[in-house]
Design a protein that fits this description.
single chain; alpha+beta
Length: 111
């Protein structure tokens, strides 16, 4: 079994250009939106796991996979009301403390 050369990894990570490169790859991966609903797959997973909550602290959307509809079929509109999930939920980042949270414009689980 190959053993990673940790000294090489540490040396590479000491250079800002490599850090910037790795962060840009991570940011790009965080922006992938396979169903085109306006909520990235990264944030969808955080919502589903209950780690990304509403601005009032509610975890009522935990367990919901917004990459599919209520029947589990791939969709950009969970509740089938004609509004994409990203039109019903907005992801906000507090510029003061960096906290990310959801604002519910309309309930994406009810028509």
């Amino acid at each position: 079994m190959l053993q990673p050369n940790l000294s090489l990894v540490v040396t590479i990570m000491e250079y800002p250009i490599f850090i910037k490169f790795f962060l840009s790859i991570q940011e790009e991966m965080n922006n992938v939106d396979t169903n085109g609903d306006g909520i990235s797959d990264y944030y969808n997973e955080l919502i589903k796991s209950g780690k990304l909550v509403l601005n009032n602290g509610s975890k009522e959307l935990a367990g919901t996979d917004f990459n599919v509809d209520k029947d589990g079929k791939p969709s950009d509109d969970y509740d089938g009301d004609g509004l994409k999930n990203g039109e019903e939920l907005q992801i906000k980042k507090d510029t003061k403390n960096g906290q990310v949270y959801l604002i519910m414009k309309s309930d994406p689980k009810i028509i």
